[in-house]
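Problem 12. The chain below contains 199 residues. Write out its predicted structure in token notation.
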Amino acid sequence: MLRKLALITVATLATIQSVAAFSIAVPPQEQRCFFEMLDKEDNLHVSFQVGDGGNLDVDFWITNPSGELVEDAKRSPSETFNHVAKVKGRHEYCFSNAFSTVTDKTLSFNVMVIKPYVEDSTQKVDPLANEIRELAAGIEEIIDEQEYTIARERTHRNTAESTNSRVMWWSLFQSGILFVVCAFQITYLKRFFEVKRVV
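Solution.
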């Protein structure tokens, strides 16, 4: 029984060809492209989240082996794409910061290639194998959501720290202005009430 369970687990995990998480910086006026070699009916899952830089947005697209655009998003802070390959070959996906002239964009993204499950007609369908397969897919979704949440938390933390810093500097500036105004008023009032003697 244990051996059968181990074989089912290995078979289930073998349906997921590769899973990878990356963090990159895309300079202004540039793009970063990556590729996956897919067989027909493979599912390319790409999710990304911009964590730092400008308005927290990038352009994204996926092209098939003949260079045709199959998925795209313009100036998006985060997206998730599932593309089922219609043809075998090199599928390219790119992140572009071409519309920005000054700011680098830092983003993290996950890539997962899922091979279609082909049932063996000579063997009977094992309900346990189906459950394990569904469980593995659910775990991958949870991992993606966790990484998305971590990236969002980092973005919100950076925003909160920036806001705190601005409030602090604004308070110091106001205190300085108040001190200068008080000093001016005291000096002016002292001069106003000075008695001038004529000799």
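Discussion. The helical segments are 2-15, 127-193. Students who got a different answer should revisit the alignment rule from Section 12.3.
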